[in-house]
């Protein structure tokens, strides 16, 4: 009996030793290899994830422009014309006039349209002109840009005179097409009113103290830009973002903050100290171009490599140019 027990114990010990060796842990080298593989996979997938997110943001940006274009069409149906790019009398820009047509009737009802400036905070018991800008309007902003409040001269700069009660008001990334500058593809010089800060092109849809209608778009609504995007805010581009309320300055005949001339290619550098405020180029953080709405209500992404002559041609409502976006 004692002999059999000894043999049994020895056999059990042998099995225990074998099981231990079959469950050995990873070596350090193997662990590092696994970590390296995971790192490679993440590096490969991250650009795809970022690209998908940017595609979604660009799509949302286009949706914002679509809503604004439809709002402008509804305004035109009601008034028989588009809103002015800005008014010197109360310094309001086109975005204020658009409020009732983008489901912002309550905010619009607080606006004071009497004479004054966009930096007013109160007037006759109503919310002042500039203070409207303390309300964030989501469809005025591109989701690819972090510049949501007023800035001047770069990503973090602010312009103290435009502050409302010490606070930077919200801005807009969508601007009216004031028209082209320079010479057309047919060799005709585009007409310009005033010269300070780039002046006002006479060939677009929006301008200071001027309202136009569909009958003025003789080149065709499908061939004429209505709105464009300026949302790029890095230091290199020196973009200037102002209160979305602001249109034309009451004291200066040459500034307009709600609309832009088409004088430079998309994503063109415009120095912060430039004296051509009205010529700040359309720009965005969407790779390769920016988003636009056309006068027929359609929306599209335009490449920064678009021929400048063609770009100016579609910015003109009455130039009889032969070039289109098709």
Kindly state the number of beta strands. 9
Helix content: 25-40%
Main β sheet profile: 5 strands, mixed
Q: Radius of gyration, rounded?
A: 30 Å
Content of β-strand: 5-15%
Q: Going across the major beta sheet, what is the strand order?
A: 7-3-6-8-9
Euclidean distance between termini CA atoms: 100 Å
Number of domains: 1
Shape, per Cα inertia axes: globular
Which class of secondary structure composition applies to the elements?
Answer: alpha+beta
Count of alpha/pi helices: 5
SSE arrangement, N to C: HHHHEEEEEEEEEH
| Unreliably modeled segments | 1-18
> How confident overall, as mean pLDDT?
84
Biased composition (Low complexity): 11-20
InterPro entries: DUF1559 (IPR011453), N_methyl_site (IPR012902), Pilin-like (IPR045584), Pre_pil_HX9DG_C (IPR027558)
Transmembrane segments: 25-49
Pfam families: N_methyl (PF07963), SBP_bac_10 (PF07596)
Overview of this structure, please?
The strands form 3 sheets. The chain has a 5-stranded mixed beta sheet. A two-stranded antiparallel sheet has the order 1-2. It has a two-stranded antiparallel ribbon with strand order 4-5. The protein is globular, with a radius of gyration of 30 Å. It has one domain (44-315). It has helices spanning 2-22, 28-79, 94-98, 105-109, 308-315, and strands spanning 122-123, 126-127, 174-180, 192-193, 200-201, 225-229, 259-262, 289-294, 299-303. It contains 5 helices and 9 strands; from the N terminus they run ααααβββββββββα. By secondary structure, it is α+β, with helices and mostly antiparallel strands. The longest helix is centred in the N-terminal third of the chain and has 52 residues, at 28-79.
């Amino acid at each position: 009996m004692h002999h059999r027990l000894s043999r049994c114990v020895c056999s059990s010990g042998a099995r225990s030793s074998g099981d231990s060796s079959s469950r050995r842990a990873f070596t350090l080298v193997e662990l590092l290899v696994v970590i390296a593989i995971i790192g490679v996979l993440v590096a490969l997938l991250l650009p795809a994830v970022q690209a998908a997110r940017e595609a979604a943001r660009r799509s949302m940006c286009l949706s914002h422009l679509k809503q604004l274009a439809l709002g402008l069409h509804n305004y035109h149906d009601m008034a028989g014309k588009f809103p002015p790019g800005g008014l010197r009398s109360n310094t309001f820009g086109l975005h204020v006039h658009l409020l009732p047509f983008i489901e912002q009737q309550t905010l619009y009802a607080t606006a004071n349209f009497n004479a004054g400036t966009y930096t007013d905070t109160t007037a006759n018991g109503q919310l002042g002109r500039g203070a409207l800008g303390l309300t964030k309007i989501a469809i005025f902003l591109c989701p690819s840009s972090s510049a949501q409040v007023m800035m001047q001269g770069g990503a973090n700069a602010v312009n103290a005179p435009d502050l409302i009660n010490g606070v930077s008001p919200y801005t807009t990334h969508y601007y009216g097409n004031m028209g082209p500058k320079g010479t057309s593809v047919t060799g005709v010089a585009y007409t310009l009113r005033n010269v300070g800060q780039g002046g006002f092109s006479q060939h677009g849809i929006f301008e200071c103290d001027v309202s136009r209608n569909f009958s003025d778009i003789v080149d065709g609504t499908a061939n004429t830009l209505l709105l464009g995007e300026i949302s790029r805010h890095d230091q290199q581009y020196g973009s200037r973002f102002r209160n979305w309320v602001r249109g034309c300055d009451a004291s200066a005949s040459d500034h307009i903050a709600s609309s832009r001339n088409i004088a430079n290619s998309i994503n063109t550098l415009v120095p912060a100290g430039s004296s051509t405020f009205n010529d700040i180029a359309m720009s965005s953080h969407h790779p390769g171009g920016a988003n636009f709405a056309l006068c027929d209500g359609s929306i599209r992404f335009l490449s920064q490599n678009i021929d400048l002559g063609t770009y100016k041609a579609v910015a003109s409502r009455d130039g009889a140019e032969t070039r289109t976006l098709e």
